[in-house]
Amino acid sequence: MDVGIGEYLALCSILFGIGAIGFLTRRNMLIQLMTIEIMLNSVVFMLLAFNRVHTGSQAGQVFGFFVIAVAAAEAAVGLAILISYFRIKNSVETDKADLLKH
Amino acid sequence: MMELLPVASLLMLVSAGLAIMLLDVFTKGRAELPFVTTIALLAAAAISAAALFAPAPTDVPAFITDYLSVDKYGLFFDVVIALGAALASLLAGGYLREHGLERGEYYVLILFSALGAMVMARAVDLLTLFVGLETLSLGVYSLVGYRRTSARATEAAVKYFLLGSFASAIFLFGAALIYGATGHTGFRSIGEVIAAGHAPVMLVLLGLAMLVAGLGFKVSAVPFHMWTPDAYEGAPTSTTAFMSVVVKSAAFAVFLRLLAVGFGDELSRGAGGWPALLTILAAVTMVYGNLAAVAQSSVKRMLAYSSIAHAGYLLLGLAAVGTKPAEATSAVLYYLAAYTVSNALVLGALIWSGSHGKEATSYADLAGLGRRHPAVGAAFLVGVLSLMGFPPTAGFFGKWYVFSAAVQADMVGMTILAVLSSAVGAFYYLKVLVYLYMKSPEEGAPVAVPMKSSYVVFALVLAAYFVMKMGLTPARYLDAALAAASGLIG
Q1: From the CA of A46, how many Å to the nearest CA of chain B?
Q2: Is the distance from CB of B133 to CB of B168 less than 8 angstroms?
Q3: Where are the domains of chain B?
Q4: Contact predicate B52/B80, CB 8 Å
């Protein structure tokens, strides 16, 4: 079977959808952090797939590297914030985060 | 070395940030970091302001111009962002010390976030835009959660971080789609490919919608605003000042550039394109922001909703860029500069009103303060009138230029809605003045005592000077905004 850009695009959209739905439905912040990583991974995958179509430059590959690097930095900051939150609240459930009311 | 001159303001902030980290360690935290940070930021603003009035540099190497613009539009935002960050670091110098929170990393984070903001405002490539956006965001998440032992601050940081990363992921997916559709990441090349009709329309529109959603989050447009009140309220007030001026300016700067340069073609500006999308966002944002602000009892939270409302007026200006590029762009630039100094002034006055152990945050805390401490009252008065859009202040001309650009772009109905909703805004702004001058503190309630800090006083004098100066001689500042806009529209 010949795998074209359409198949890659479908796979990335499904991955991104899983991540987005997971983020919106789960109530555990650690899992929400993981779902964001899934979304970012789908973006990296899509950038690489598109680079196979646009062979003129390696912009997609380079962009992919940057996304990976920034995702790592984001995870580091996010976990630090989550830890300081857990120390106070003893929980990482979003339902408990209700001090600041709308 | 000379070829790096056009990005000197960015290099200034990087080296200042690194130097301050060392300075803090080697002096064991005894150095006057707010002072050093402010000097560095004001120096960056001065460098860019000088370049703004000088002739444009020629033969800048491509390794800079492919990723960072050196045009007057970027320089204008350099000045606004550096000035806003300088005001925030001065306010932090008073606020953090008074409340026993001062640590060196706060100023380093301010410098690096301001760097990210400047990179964003100068970005001409989706890659630079993304890197700038994340440099800014990661710094600001940490600035919000800076008070680690406070349940409210960490909760605000967690909410801001989770929603912020979600929005970044959506933005990135949009960027990847645009890259896939056009084969380019540079704004200008993207625009050329779309205008030539070589890009799949559905892919472009979907990508554009996701980019708008991601950036709409950063400018706190409804319905992507949920984080704004919580993050503004939970953060240290100096961080609130930084967020409301620097993050907003940078996000609007790149938003406008991306739309005008990358999606300036007939199709994207047409009936179903971004001006229509932004008009709807603007309407919802200004109405919701103003109505929700009325119901607040905390001044900090009220200012958060008012910043949502101001984002609505700015989005109206952005929508007008589709038909009247020069007028609308210069109006948005002027508005952002005016909003920066006015909002820093009001938040600075709020910081000034509190002292150790008793921060002023609610309306009740301000009761009678204007009569007991006329200087604090005067700072509030000037700032609040400017946010309200009362002549002759900076805020009045900001609203005037944006609304008249919208009228010229045939958006009369929207302009009427904007004027009506800013009349609602007058209600909650005047409530601040009513509490300051006409109410007295309740029996037994803790009475707010203003702090003594020369940093805060200096920041307020600086902000008030610009609020009045931009209101009394608006033409000079509008000329600078027009010159900046011409750099973008070409």
Answers
A1: 7
A2: yes
A3: 16-489
A4: no
DSSP state of B55: P
Please tell me the distance in Å from B125's CA to the nearest CA on chain A.
11
Residue A102 within any structural domain of the chain? no
Residue A59 belongs to some domain of the structure? yes
Interface ipTM > 0.85 = yes
Whether residue A101 is contained in a domain is answered as: no
Burial of B267 (0-12, 13-18, 19+ CB in 10 A): middle
Beta carbon pairs, A and B, within 8 Å: 125
**pLDDT per residue over B75-124, tens digit each?**
999 999 999 999 999 999 999 999 988 888 999 999 999 999 999 999 99
The CA distance from B353 to B346, in Å, is 11
As a whole number of angstroms, the distance between CA B321 and CA B327 comes to: 8
pLDDT of residue B264: 84
Question: Looking at residue A62, which CATH number applies to its domain?
Answer: 1.10.287.3510
pLDDT of residue B5: 82
Q: Do A47 and B176 touch (CB under 8 A)?
A: yes
DSSP β-bridge partners for residue B362: B298
Q: How confident is the model at residue B59 (pLDDT cuts 50, 70, 90)?
A: confident
Domain residue limits at A66: 5-91
Q: What is the pTM of this model?
A: 0.95
Give residue-wise pLDDT tens across range B410-422: 999 999 999 999 9
CA distance B107 to chain A (A): 17
Name the residue among B152, B168, B179 with its Cβ closest to that of A50: B179
Domain count, chain A: 1
